Amino acid sequence: MTRPTQPTAVRTVSVSTSPSTLTAIGRVIGVRKATLFAIAVPLSLGSLASLQSGPGLSAQEPDQDTVTTFRVTAHLRDADTDTPLMGALIELSGHSRRYVTAMNGRVSFEVPADRYTLTAHKGGYATLRVDFRVERPGELNILMHELGDLDTSVPDWLLVRVTESGSGRLMEGATVSLPGGRARMTDRQGWVEFRGLAGPVAEITVRNLGYEPHAQPVSLRAGRTTVIEVAMAIDALVLRPIEVRAQSTFLERQGVYWRIDRGWPDMLLTSEELVERADPRLADAFRNLFPGIRPDYHGHLTFLVNHLGCRIPVYMDGQPLGSDVRGLNIDDIRPEELELAEFYEAGRIPARFGGLSECGLVLLWSRRRAGREGS
Questions:
Q1: Which residues on neighbouring strands pair with residue 192, listed in sequence order?
Q2: SS3 for 256?
Q3: Residue 174 belongs to what domain range?
């Protein structure tokens, strides 16, 4: 593809700013621990009574129209090299003044408590739009992606790229939908495309398990390609923390609790959840656990595959099924025999289990080896 002279793209970030979010993320099981790359730390502004002057100082009280402002510092960096981006032009909603990042990639501004949209422009990078809320002094850590050799000359073409907020990880398997029922899943590079769009505006909705849904109108460029990049913010309120009973020595040696404490598994199923979801067989417990995951049947054998049809390796008590556990298939295992199951997307697999699978990984742990049999 040829590199456009002045391509235009928009990258939108949804940032969850509920007061409990930052403390809850580290303990949520079933979602990935990530550092939010656009952060507005929410705290209440406090009682106005605390700002009143003491007796005898009424003449020095500020006017009721005086607005308290807070200092916000934005840090702009290249998403691939992590180098500061100097000379980026910053626009802030509701403010006529424009700002330019310094050599260290930083820029600061004083604003009242409110919601804002920050737009960052820099040559060779996708235009970035960040929605955030200010309730006290804070920082925005922003990653910008280079456009590369993207050809934006194709008319009536919408390209949507989905990434994970903070890590910048390209998100495979996210569902992007348009009004009227048109929906597709992103590929390994986080891309999905729609052709033949009509009208000046398209409303897109992006969903992925464990992340906040994102919806926005997109202005389509007449006779050109429209490129949108959406960073999904982690949803720390959707999935409850797991309740762990007395720890198993076997599971501890296998690193299960270590991974759980760090929020490493993309999804964790307890014994109760496995029994509830395994209808009628164990493989069905993983159906649509992440978008596109399903059982695939070949004769008497059952495999788990992702939305690309790639077979997901399954381990039982640390050993791959069909290897050291000769002849055992996932549907030969009764869900009542399991203590828990871990699921990992490709690129996040623990090194002790290969770490290189392009399809994902399922780890099953039996109640017998965990010392729960009969409990």
A1: 160
A2: helix
A3: 9-44+68-232
Determine the longest span between alpha carbons in the chain, in angstroms: 89
Q: Are residues 222 and 267 in the same domain?
A: no
Q: Is 362:304 a contact under the CB 8 Å cutoff?
A: yes
Strand order in the sheet with 69-78: 106-112, 69-78, 138-144
DSSP conformational letter for 220: P
Tell me, what CATH number does 78's domain have? 2.60.40.1120
List the structure tokens of 156: 């009536």
**Proportion of the chain above pLDDT 70, given as a percent:** 73
Residues 149 and 260 in one domain: no
**How many angstroms separate the CA atoms of 230 and 213, rounded?**
11
Please state the pTM of the whole predicted model: 0.40
Give pLDDT tens digits for 140-185. 888 887 877 666 666 778 888 888 776 677 888 889 999 888 889 8
Do 306 and 194 lie in one domain? The reply is no
The three-state DSSP-derived secondary structure of 272-327 is: HHHHHHCCCCHHHHHCCCCCCCEEEEECCEEEEECCCCCECCEEECCEEECCCECC
